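Researcher: I'm preparing a figure for a lab meeting and need a structural model of a single chain. I don't have an experimental structure, so a prediction will have to do for now. The sequence is pasted below. Please return the structure as C-alpha cells so I can convert it later.
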Amino acid sequence: SLSQPDREGMFHRGPGLNLTSGQYTAPIAGYYTFSTTLHIARTEPRRKGQGCRGSRLRVLICVQSLCQHNSNLESVSRLGSSGDLFTVSVTGILYLQAGQYASVFVDNTAGSPLTVRRGSHFSAVLLGV
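Model: Understood. Here is the structure written out cell by cell.
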C-alpha cells in the first residue's frame, strides 16, 4: 500500500519509515540500500572573521544511532567560503537485523546554525536476506 504523508511531495511504501522520528525500522533482517540527499542552508550569515578553514559537514546514516561504530555510511564535505546552500548525498548498503533502525545524522563543525531544506530525502529499500 502507498500512503501519502502530510508533507508535500513525499511518499512512502511499507511500514518501516516513521516520519516523526526520522527512523527506518527493518521489518525483517537483510541487506538494505540507504540513500539520502540533504539540501542544507546556513540559517544566519557568517560573521566577518569567522573562518571556513577546517569547517566540514558530515552526513551519516547510522544503525541504532551508533555513529561511532563501523555500521554506518558517511559523507564528509568541506564548506567553502562561497554560498550558503549545500547539497550532500550518502548512499550505500547496510545489514539490519529485524527491529533495528537506521536514521540520518548531520555533524556540523561550521560554527553557524544549519537547516535542512525542503526537497531533501531519505530512503531505504530491502535488497535481500
